[in-house]
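Assemble and predict.
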Amino acid sequence: MLAETILCLGVNHKTAPVAVREKLAFSGDCTTPLTELKALPGCEECCLLSTCNRVEVLLVAKEEATTAAETVRRFLFGASGITPEESQQYSYFHQGSAAITHVFRVAASLDSMVVGEPQILGQLKEAYRAATEQQATGAVLNKLLTKAFSVAKRIRTETNIGGSAVSISYAAVQLAKKIFGELKDKKVLLVGAGEMAELAAEHLAAQGIGKVVVANRTLERAVNLARTFHGTAVGLDELVPQLAEVDILISSTGATDLILRKEEVRPVMRQRHNRPLFLIDIAVPRDLDPELNDLDNVYLYDIDDLKQVVELNRAERQKEADKAERIVDEEAIKFLQWLEAMEVAPTITALRRRAEAIRDAEVAKTLGHLPGLGEKERKGIELMANAMINKLLHDPMMFLKAAVPAEEKRAHLALVRKVFGLDAEGGDSAS
Amino acid sequence: MRELFQLTVLAYGAATITYLVYFFSRNKRVRGGARGLLLGAGVLHTFYIIARYLAAGHTPIASNHEAVSFFAWSLAWGFLSFRWRYQVKNFGAFVSPLITLLMVIAALSSQHIVELPPALQSYWLPIHASIAILANGFMALAFCGGVMYLLQEREIKKKHFGLFYSRLPSLEALDHLNQHCLAIGFPLLTLGIVTGSIWAKQAWGAYWQWDPKETWSLITWFIYAAIIHQRLTVGWRRRRAAIMAIVGFSAVLFTLWGVNFLLGGVHSYAG
């Protein structure tokens, strides 16, 4: 069985701690490890993926799958100084349909630390590009990986997997976007220069926030932080007048008492012509009066509110991930069917059937146009059509049956299937 | 012609269901189908109006059936016209049910072609009636935007993230939508009243005679004028603007139907 020769072996954030992963990681150029991998006995096709959360080898084995897996495992852990027993424990190994499902899940970011994060697809594409440059992949991996990319794309369009924020600072950014739409022309005021405030400001800056203003008890710290975001610094006593100007306020001072009250903000809202104000209070104890949320067009979120958003998003993402898993299973079955067809016998049958279908249709059409023919003439036409398809099919059949190495054989099969359009009715338009 | 109308109603219904499926499932492939269906329904509806025009010999905005059907038509095409200007996420899930509802109301009212009394046989009929109802279409779009705004705002303010938070666009986008609809709808509304007044002078010899429909359209006009004035001067935007769009639209509906059923007057449709 061809499917059983597909193997996937590696470590990821679930199976191995970072101390182990960093010993295995191939940073930068993958050319050398790829050529080494390709040269391993038993390796037919291969592809190497190395990111900060995973190092894995995707491989089509020549014959003995388990021996090939052992060789690859030794190769992966070769320079790490980890004993073979430990390497067994840290790594995972998938074969056949499990390996196919695994690749699809990785591409669709279902196996990621943060499920749904989009970078992994780009990294996998990069790994595939590197492998094709070294001619390390063949008919099977080419098909498997392009299929994995289209599965990932399908999951992106059919589920909302990447849609929700799962960290506090990112949740704050997402809320800001729900309130303001574009952040380009918006201003944020950081009150207090804590680490959390800085992180949230970084996220906002990455989303193209227009301007950053920093207010702090000690002006020096404010000036320093403002400089990192190309912003301006103000004193803490200017807080209320600043509110007329800014759109988002992130407060994280160490003050024990409230620093901003409802009565102070109410007149400012009139001055702002009711432009909305998004107040984020990440200080404990709180800096901002909880009653501020009662004002029209003022949205106040404290740290617990943001945590709640994150929790909800996690749950939402899990639901979407379940949908995505169904798509993966469905596509894995389709891919297995394609693999089965890649054996010689079914391809020959399919080719014959195709030709015979054309012959029968054309003969019927021709005879339909010629009603006056006798039995003998009709027989003659049928025989001629039959002889034609047999002659035409002879060379492709020989080509398929020729004794060539396994990899070449797969390439031949893929070629014949493509030329004669044998995969067309599978509904596989993705590749 | 009756079949054409029924087919149109069905097409709007199908578009509505598809938009709702997209709203809940968020499968982007479904969205394409919904748009296609609505566009198809809009085209069918246009054919229906043309067919009715040919059959009646006058612009088909004379009976309740025709007025409501034209209302739905202007809503549908107003919505479709937005498609290439700018996109509002899941707007269709709110607009299409309203279109379908209007079409069902149109289907339930008498579809007989009315004979126009001589006073109404004028080229001012198509001008006045179509402009006035087109204005209604845009006010209805502003209404849908207002409802969406309030739903979204409620979830953000109450920090209770349910069905709408991730499905509806940003508050800013919805506020823009409101502004945009009024910017088109209000001039049309004004023009509708002015053309009506000119026609009244021609038909009855007086520009204005405080017929209930006239009074109520003036009230509606004042509501929208106030919204726009307040937005420009003291910043009535966002939440308050959304509420006012809903209030204004109730006035539109009352002007369209309430007046006929409760108060009567020269605008009561013949038959």
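Chain A touches chain B at residues 157-160, 163-164, 175, 177-182, 270, 272-276, 293, 296-297, 299, 301, 305, 308-309, 312, 316 (CB under 8 Å).
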